Automatic annotation (TrEMBL):
Domain of life: Eukaryota
Protein name in the entry: RNase H type-1 domain-containing protein
Amino acid sequence: MEKTKISWSPPNPGELKFNIDGAVNESFGEAEIGGCLRNGSAKMLLAFSKSVGRVDPTTVEILSLLEAIKLYCKSR
């Protein structure tokens, strides 16, 4: 099996980057979301992680995006 190198790159100066993810534990059906917002210097500005109950994989990804947007708007 070939390994793939994955790396994070910061946004351009003056821009922000929000990385988000959602995951579903298929054994229990419970889902979690999380994300972090960083600036061009890679400084973390916001972060979140929370349980969202029993949802399907598509919904959990949408919920992580909505949470990121909500937190960003509240921070402005």
